[in-house]
Amino acid sequence: MGRIYNFSAGPAVLPEEVLKEAAEEMLDYKGTGMSVMEMSHRSKAFEEIIQEAEKDLRELMNIPDNYKVLFVQGGASQQFAAVPMNLMKNKVADYIVTGQWAKKAYLEACLYGKANIIASSADKTFSYIPDCSDLPVSEDADYVYICENNTIYGTKFKTLPNTKGKPLVADVSSCILSEPVDVTKYGVMFAGAQKNIGPAGVVIVIIREDLITEDTLPGTPTMLKYKIHADNNSLYNTPPAYGIYICGKVFKWVKKMGGLEVMKKRNEEKAKILYDFLDESKLFKGTVAKEDRSLMNVPFITGSDELDAKFIKEAKAAGFENLKGHRTVGGMRASIYNAMPIDGVKALVEFMKKFEDENLS
Ligand code: PLP
């Protein structure tokens, strides 16, 4: 069997040339006679890999010098605790809850201090982004938290909230590198790599230097202290070395493709193909407010659980994998991250048209 079109929300599709290159280097990385998987993280070869990965990411995202880039572990979920443990000096933080990942982060913060929900879209099953232009930001809030792209529900903040001067903390797991961003608008951004970058096991934290302090909450584990990772250039302990190496290759691929402006155009083009079809279809429909639609995760339904199941089964047989919606919401979801080719989206829409013709009664 050849490669299928993989619409998984994560771990997700990687650029084919990255996988091929990694395969070629598997037994002998650049004359070292070993795989990066077998290499000491203190070796010169690995030092070059991690330094170059950081350099390329900084270039791609235009990350200013007063921000640190950390490669850490523990999944994006670990950051739900690391953020309050490092940032909750006043033990107060404001959360905007636009889906399950933001809710999980909020619940985690409740373990460490007073976390307030200052806006939410739970009233309409997270199908929109609330107006965040004038929020009741707490005077003593240490930060305001968002999940910028809601992987499960398929919504995205098109405008960042007005945090009234408080640092913005954003979970960008499912939108990092999908379009240019102004890093200076954020205090902290973090992302699990397994969506738009690739290998699960790596988490990228981009944090403004003044937010990195010794003054963490009592009991903060050493491994969760941003300062430890910053002071040690992400080499305090053994990092997820092979994953970082693949991240570096993906950064090079994004650069070669033309950078984030080009990624944005490509992603808009892909998403438009799918959303235009959903808007016209007599069988399928999108589930979220049009103005808040994500470029990365596109949920849709037929309105019938039976037809949804039939579609997912037939799509799989035709080579379109992982189209089942998140287990908590059902329906379908096509995740169309950077590495999904336009042809994959076109082929999916053709398949959906055919399914519609065959199943419209
Ligand atoms: N945040 C977002 C936006 C996600 O989509 C996910 C996972 O899908 C997570 C956090 C959790 O990531 P992890 O499994 O790396 O902890």
TrEMBL record:
According to the record, how does the cofactor bind? Answer: Binds 1 pyridoxal phosphate per subunit.
Instruction: Specify the superkingdom.
Output: Bacteria
User: Where is it located?
Assistant: Cytoplasm
- Report the transmembrane regions from the record: none
Pathway terms, separated by semicolons: Amino-acid biosynthesis; L-serine biosynthesis; L-serine from 3-phospho-D-glycerate: step 2/3
Give residues annotated as binding pyridoxal 5'-phosphate.
76-77, 101, 151, 171, 194, 237-238
Q: Which keywords has UniProt assigned to this entry? A: Amino-acid biosynthesis, Aminotransferase, Cytoplasm, Pyridoxal phosphate, Serine biosynthesis, Transferase
As one GO molecular function, the record gives: pyridoxal phosphate binding
Spell out the CDD domains in the cross-references.
PSAT_like (cd00611)
Tell me which residues bear N6-(pyridoxal phosphate)lysine.
195
Gene Ontology CC, one term: cytoplasm
Which residues are listed for L-glutamate binding in this entry?
42
Q: Does the keyword Transmembrane helix apply?
A: no
- The Aminotransferase class V domain sits at 4-348
InterPro entries associated with the record: Aminotrans_V_dom, Pser_aminoTfrase, PyrdxlP-dep_Trfase, PyrdxlP-dep_Trfase_major, PyrdxlP-dep_Trfase_small
Cross-referenced Gene3D superfamilies: Aspartate Aminotransferase, domain 1 (3.90.1150.10), Type I PLP-dependent aspartate aminotransferase-like (Major domain) (3.40.640.10)
EC top class, in one word?
transferase
Which catalytic reaction applies to this protein?
O-phospho-L-serine + 2-oxoglutarate = 3-phosphooxypyruvate + L-glutamate; 4-(phosphooxy)-L-threonine + 2-oxoglutarate = (R)-3-hydroxy-2-oxo-4-phosphooxybutanoate + L-glutamate
Enzyme Commission no: 2.6.1.52
Q: What is its main location?
A: cytoplasm
Q: Fill in the subunit field for this protein.
A: Homodimer.
Q: What function does this protein fulfil?
A: Catalyzes the reversible conversion of 3-phosphohydroxypyruvate to phosphoserine and of 3-hydroxy-2-oxo-4-phosphonooxybutanoate to phosphohydroxythreonine.
Q: Which family does it belong to?
A: Belongs to the class-V pyridoxal-phosphate-dependent aminotransferase family. SerC subfamily.
Protein name (record): Phosphoserine aminotransferase
**Native organism:** Herbinix hemicellulosilytica
